[in-house]
Automatic annotation (TrEMBL):
MF GO annotations: structural molecule activity
Gene name, Swiss-Prot/TrEMBL: Cldn20
Source organism: Himantopus himantopus
PANTHER family named among the record's database cross-references: CLAUDIN
Single GO cellular component term: plasma membrane
Family the UniProt entry places it in: Belongs to the claudin family.
UniProt-recorded name of the protein: Claudin
Amino acid sequence: MASASLQFFAFILALFGAFGDITATLLPNWKVNADVGSNIITAITQMQGLWMDCTWYSTGMFSCTLKYSVLSLPVYIQAARTTMVLSCILSAFGICITTVGMKCTKLGGDTDSKSHACFAGGVCFILAGIFGLVPTSWYTREIISNFLDQTIPESSKHEPGGAVYTGFISAGFLLIAGVIFCTSCFKKQQGAWIYPPNQHHFPSTEQESNAGYNLKDYV
C-alpha cells in the first residue's frame, strides 16, 4: 500500500511537471527587459520567448511578434526549442506508460508487466527532466553573461523571466517522479532476488532408503 501511495504521489508530481513543461515552452517571457521613462505611463516591458517576442505597455496594450525564421535565431534558442519539445513529448509518454504500470490501476496485466511499464515510465520522466533542465540552464547562462558584459548597453540587457523558473521547477518535478518510479520497481525486483521463492526438494534420505531397499531385493 505504501508503494502504491508513493507511486500515486510521483504521478501527481509528473502531471505538474508535464503541465509546467508545456507552459514554459509556450510562454513568451523567457527573458524580460523593463524600460521606464520619465513618466510611469511610458513604461514598457519587452519579453522574449522561444516562439515569439512580446511588448507590454503600462497603458494595457499588448503586442507580439512570432519568430518565423529558425536559422536566424541564436544557437541556444534553437537548442531550447528542440529540447523543450522533446521534454514535453517524453513527459506525455511517461504519463501514458505509468498509468498502465501503477499498482493502483487495473491495467497492464500481471505484476511483472506492470513493474516493467512503471520502470519505463520512470525513465521517460528522468529523460524529460534532463531535456527540460538543459535548455533552461543554458538560457539562464546566456542571460547572465550578457547582463555582466560591459560592452552591451543597459537598454539591451535582460533578466530571467517567469518561463525560466517554471521550466526549472517542472524539470525538478519530472526528475523526482522518475526517480521514485524507477526506485520503487527496483526495490521490488531486488527483494525478489534476495528472497527467492521456496522450492520443494526431495530429501536425499528418501533416495538412500530406496537404494537400500533395492539392494536388499538382490540379497
